[in-house]
Amino acid sequence: MILPIVGYGDPVLRKMAEDIPQDYPNLKETVANMYETMYNAYGVGLAAPQVGMAIRLFIVDTTPFSDDEDLSKEEQEQLNGFKKTFINAKMLKEEGEEWGFNEGCLSIPEVREDVYRNEQITIEYYDEDFKKHTEVYDGLRARVIQHEYDHIEGILFTDKISSLKKQLIKKKLQNIMEGKTRPDYKMKFASPKKGR
């Protein structure tokens, strides 16, 4: 089932998400709905707060990036089919050089900005079967995970840009809150203006 994606300005996007117990009701169904929602919106990641749930769950599938001809063959192969579910994730380390990449977010449509993040991460998480993993990622895989991890910490990519850039996108953010932005996927806006 395709879920509406929560737009910028909704308080759920600013909440510190809570851990999920192993007996969380309908977890597999929730995860399946999130994948369907993400693919419908052509995303490469989606966090539970983006569909209105303040729980520590996010999904990624970096396959769309594997077509990027600017990447090395090795990077393309790493990204192709990299599909994972992260439950109760904990970032253990973010290290290496910071590098910039133009990021967007399904909750903040029509806004893209360069964001600087560390090259490599070490993350601990549970998969859908509640098996625990500790893994190291770098490059674009690390970046997508960092972006989604921020969501379960109540952080948005727009928090990581300069105050000047924030000023420049202020109107766009206001339009998203008021429901004036119309992406081609289902969204739930924070305070849509009546009669538009």
UniProtKB/TrEMBL annotation:
<dbReference type="InterPro" id="IPR023635">
    <property type="entry name" value="Peptide_deformylase"/>
</dbReference>
<dbReference type="InterPro" id="IPR036821">
    <property type="entry name" value="Peptide_deformylase_sf"/>
</dbReference>
<keyword id="KW-0408">Iron</keyword>
<feature type="active site">
    <location>
        <position position="148"/>
    </location>
</feature>
<keyword id="KW-0378">Hydrolase</keyword>
<dbReference type="Pfam" id="PF01327">
    <property type="entry name" value="Pep_deformylase"/>
</dbReference>
<dbReference type="GO" id="GO:0042586">
    <property type="term" value="F:peptide deformylase activity"/>
</dbReference>
<keyword id="KW-0648">Protein biosynthesis</keyword>
<comment type="similarity">
    <text>Belongs to the polypeptide deformylase family.</text>
</comment>
<comment type="function">
    <text>Removes the formyl group from the N-terminal Met of newly synthesized proteins. Requires at least a dipeptide for an efficient rate of reaction. N-terminal L-methionine is a prerequisite for activity but the enzyme has broad specificity at other positions.</text>
</comment>
<feature type="binding site">
    <location>
        <position position="147"/>
    </location>
    <ligand>
        <name>Fe cation</name>
    </ligand>
</feature>
<feature type="binding site">
    <location>
        <position position="151"/>
    </location>
    <ligand>
        <name>Fe cation</name>
    </ligand>
</feature>
<protein>
    <recommendedName>
        <fullName>Peptide deformylase</fullName>
        <ecNumber>3.5.1.88</ecNumber>
    </recommendedName>
</protein>
<keyword id="KW-0479">Metal-binding</keyword>
<feature type="binding site">
    <location>
        <position position="105"/>
    </location>
    <ligand>
        <name>Fe cation</name>
    </ligand>
</feature>
